């Protein structure tokens, strides 16, 4: 058998040249040039003293961005779903009850992960496209007495921002439940205050409002949450995401657990430096202002937003698809004609909305005007009842 592989054909491939898209979908967003440059710097070992210093910096920058003093604040090696599973899979023990929302796609993912962790899932109902009602949450807490309550702060599938977060966390803590918040589409883009709002665990993704490639995902836990993790009677089902083991690497010891994605840590460090340089509150204001111009543009051309103004999510704008229009064809034409990415709906809203992001480095005036112009042109060419010129005028007026 020696040399048998010599007869195999060598695959023919060209140099990697992906298209240069403008990313205005639900993520990823455009990556800042400084982040790309950071990723091209030389590798060091994941236990190199210089990398340990970088780890310290990333943790401190994450605390600033989450608005927390939590000691247990790390980038999980993996995408935002890995941070999500680290949060739920460690905090939810077999036999625990977790209360989850039904008002979007990612509440459903919370439920799936809790069940895989051995938990019993109960639900607090709310329609897709609406936030949770604190009174209904309180009633569900009283009825089910869960160990953990999870909610989605910024629901990427519906374009809804959950208001009244302190009311939700207070109700949960009145029933001695820990609170896990999905902040994937809110961190760095809309107001998020982990400590002030009394959130026990928050997880996020780097590829949305932080404008960083996926691969190292933010996670923070309060002392109470980490105490529960460290006092578990049964190990979490994932060795890789076991926070009691990851604590040895990201804690004081810096003991080997796995080879960290070094380049991705470089990237998130630079992305978080950009957040700190801009100022977190100024960054929230920029997202609201530019997304407001996007919203003015789509409404100006005759389209409707999916979420009412009182819980509109600036970082992810859900826009109703006009009658008689195929959303998938529109998304395809935007890619073909304009190298512009937006996305269709998920789950219950599949085919009913466009999801247009306004996140991080993508949240710039030229991108907003470009997106409104391109969307109006494509919709008009397909026979939709829109006024593209009015949309662009409204966008420019909002920006000025």
From TrEMBL:
Residues 1-15 have a biased composition (Acidic residues). GO terms for molecular function: alanine-glyoxylate transaminase activity; L-serine-pyruvate transaminase activity. Keywords: Aminotransferase, Pyridoxal phosphate, Transferase. Its cofactor is pyridoxal 5'-phosphate. Residues 1-28 are annotated as: Disordered. Residues 45-304 form the Aminotransferase class V domain. It comes from the Archaea. GO terms for biological process: glycine biosynthetic process, by transamination of glyoxylate. Belongs to the class-V pyridoxal-phosphate-dependent aminotransferase family. This is Alanine--glyoxylate aminotransferase. The lineage of its organism: Archaea, Methanobacteriati, Methanobacteriota, Stenosarchaea group, Halobacteria.
